[in-house]
Amino acid sequence: MAGVTPDGASWLASAALYPRSTLAVWREQPDAPVVLPCGAVFDVVSAPVVFGRRMLDRLWEDGPGSGPVAVYRGRVLLFAASGTAQRLPSLLHWEEWGARDDGDPDGGGRTGGIPPLLCHGTGDAVTVPAPLGGDGGDGPFDNRWLVAPDTRHPWLPGPEVLLWAAVRAARATVRISISPPQEQGAKVYDVSRRR
What is the pTM of this model? Predict the structure, then answer.
C-alpha cells in the first residue's frame, strides 16, 4: 500500500497553522502521526471501522469514489468537503438516523442499528496517520491510510454523498422487511407452498 505523496502531504499540511513546520516534522519523522485542524481545508467524518469500511465500499463500488480515507485507533476517517460536519448531522436526522416510528428506544427507522458518525469540522482537530502509512500493520485497527492523499487538491465528498453512502451501507447490514412485525401468539399460515 502506497503512502501519502509529496503533493498529498502538502495538502494535509496546508490545514495546519504552520504548514512548513508540519512538513518539517514529517521529513524528520515520516512515521509520526500528527494532529490537524478541521474546517478550513477539510472536514472529517469518523465511523467505527467495520461500518466505515462498508461506507467506503459503497462509495467505490456504486458511487463516485472517495477522497482520502484513513484508519486511526479503530475508526475510519473519511475526509470530506469543508462544511460537511455542520450539514451531515441534520441530513442524518432527516433520514431518521436511529429514530423509530413504533417508539422502540433501541433505534430502528430506515437506518436503525447503525453506529453514530462523528463529524469533525471548524474548531475540531483529528490525528491522522503518518505519511508513510503509520505502524505498518494490516489489522483492522492499525493506523494507516486506506486512500492516501496524492494531489494538492483532492476531490472531497460533500454531506449528500456521505449520507448516500451511509444509507446504502445501512441497507446492506440491516434486513428490511415490508411486512409488519408478527403479533405474539398469532397463527401464521405459509401460503407459498401451494400445490
Answer: 0.79
